[in-house]
Amino acid sequence: MSESQITALAFPGVRSLTHRLTVITFFAIVLAPILLFGYDGPWFGPGDISVRNRAPFPEKFAPGAFKLFDTWFADRVGLRYPLIYVGTNFHIGALHRPLDNHIVFGRDGWMYWTDDRETTPAIMADARGKLRFKAKEIERIDAQLTAAHNQHAACGIASAVLIAPNKQSVYGEFLLNVPSAAPPTRLDVLLEQINTAARDTIVDPRQIMRAAKLRHAPLRLYNKTETHWNGLGAYYAYVAVMQKLALMLPDHPEPKPLDDFQVIAGPYPGGDMGTRVLFSPWRFFDEDVSLTPKVPISTTGQLQIDPAHFVYRNPSGKGQLVLFGDSFAGHHLGHFFAQHFAEVHRYVAETFNGPIIAMHKPQAVLFETVERYLDRLLLKPIDLPLACAKQ
Q: Phi-psi category of 87—alpha, beta or left, where left has phi over 0 and alpha has psi -120 to 50?
């Protein structure tokens, strides 16, 4: 007879108590997050994590309400931070895979965000030359770019469209094993198939940034754990834009030379992919590169007017620039344009907006979109004929 059998015969209540304790312990662990509803708990890892604001409770019962309720509940489950920490260590530390299907781990610590927002998980279709616009879409983009340029010109406004490159368009060697030249992307094909007038409105900084990448190595234009360019990368996008606008503006302002800026490089806990998506500050070594004017143009920096409107001011500048764009426009770009213009008005937007242009009466207008959202060029500008209207 085994020792456990002897114990069970001698103490008949022990086995029953042990089973109950196991069940009680299991449910205590499982239900603890519910019992501590609303308590985030401590973050055990180094550094601070950035978590989006908690989702609100659904205002009314409608299609999608259950999904909204699920998000509301998940944002308030107890011990959220410790659970995130445990999940992060399991997926990234043990399994070496990202928590988000939009992220791909490259070589040497590089991270990449998907280049096709319609596809999950990320398969990098564009980087592999598998993503294309349809013929009708190319015709539409061609017509809208030309019409927008003509409308701005009729108002006496210089205009351009900046395509911010995906990280893999500049540092693709850490993502794909390409034995020869990289395959043509959706942007490459688009630029080949639209008319000259439409193509001339587009600023494509990939070539100048690829050359700068080699010239400045080991400094980088994109951080390994960030979806956006850093200060050095934004500088070369600014140079490409000003070279385009200088041909249309009366005083032909040239981009400021790099010598006018102090280049500062140093380690930091990680970009938006490393900290906000993977909740892993300091897990992945990274370096940030920023540029600071040696002679400051203003002490105010960026002023936020409302959630979608930001202003940069330069008392020594001339005229105004209106910049429509996504988060790439908000990463350093406005500070560089403020070197030339008295005011730079940056709006979070997905296309040109005629009434906003009319309100500011700018000398130049720029629309920026990141390459992975190139389909924004299919969107019709908002009331663009009103750009010349008097306010």
A: alpha
